[in-house]
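FAQ: What does a multi-protein file look like?

Like this. Sequence, then tokens, then the next protein.
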Amino acid sequence: MRVLSVPSRAFFWLLSLLAASLLWFVSSQLRGREEPALLPLGAAAAVLLQELSRFACFRLLRKADEGLAALSEDGRSPMSLRQMAYVSGLSFGVSSGVFSIINILADSAGPGTVGIHGDSPYYFITSAFLTMALVLLHTFWGVIFFDACERRCTGGLGLVVGGHLLVSGLTFLNPWYEASLGPILILRLCTGLWAFGTAGGSFHNVLKCLSCK
């Protein structure tokens, strides 16, 4: 028995995207034009809406988990919280990655040459690395976020939301890619180690895996 498929969990991210799009449309209409100052505010609002959707996903999965546990013969759910957190985070990451890279892939088909007017020739490869980092970060954030919700740890929730806002803010430094991509990759590594520890991983388990024991 499965507790909500990957597409079902990705639907929560799509709802946050729809809400952020509607908010941006209304703000632009009220202002009469798309002011540059609206872009950072819109990005921050989109991040907060995504995290609210992640929390809604956690609450729904928690209710479903309790219902499945009540129906099972041994009184236990067929899926653990860590499994649900991983799948939910991966769903958010894949959805976010697809929407962030699809327009770039369309532009890469031409016409035009990247860097012909003095811009960075590393636009596409940098965008690929940023998308990869975002997918992994969402997966890690899902594991940490669900664990923090389960333990009612506001500090963990705050760090996830803060990290998401930081990553979103760093992308505004583009096309100064050294200032944006470097810190994001470092944050991805640190967040991955944090999620690894949260999921019960340890250096001893890594050694056992590598030694095939």
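And here is the next protein:
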Amino acid sequence: QVLESFPPLRNEAAVRVLRGRMKGIQGHCNSCYMDAALFSLFSCTSVLDSMLFKPFLLCDRNVQSILRDEIVNPLRKTGFVRARSVMHLREQLTEKGQCSSFTNAEKDPEEFLNLIMHQILGIEPLLKLQSGGQEQDCYCHQIFMDKQEDLVVPHVQQLVEHSFLSSDLKLVEIPSCFIIQMPRFGKEYKMFSKIIPSLELDITDLLLDSPRECCVCGDIATLECS
């Protein structure tokens, strides 16, 4: 346990602390879905640090302390989290979620996020989406899309735009945190051999009723063509 809190790693510090052998979150027994999610959520950003400290109404203090003291703080301090710490969290999720396979099976990251954010920590949904006139709240957006022959090594920006277009989705409001699950996971099939991270994400065209420029005349657009 590391009881002292550390800020997320940035720039040169991130490279120095996180690069090399025995860095990151140690994998064990199909934990990759959780390891990757936790690393993405906490290693270099503080946007979800409220999950670690805030006394939410339904918050499970034990899970919160394991997440903070055994995973996030060690990751930010030394760049390494041992598999035993993640297994401790998985055991607690198994107990709270009434699902025995959290400790040994490969799971969908969205299932993990929904369990820990909604059922255990009780935080409000991060995303408000609209599809076909119906609004829905969720914690992350999982990219579903048909295979695109022209997308061999895509950027995240391209995948998000294709996904929203094909699913007729719009963001109702600018999200405080936009968690996106890539279409690359599982043992049997990976749609892309690699995906290039977009360091900035332009969501202008994804926002519902957002004023945008007409590509013909430059004035405020009144029509949108998919």
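Q: Is there any per-entry metadata?
A: Some entries carry free-text notes. For the entry above: The CA atoms of residues 5 and 147 lie 43 Å apart.
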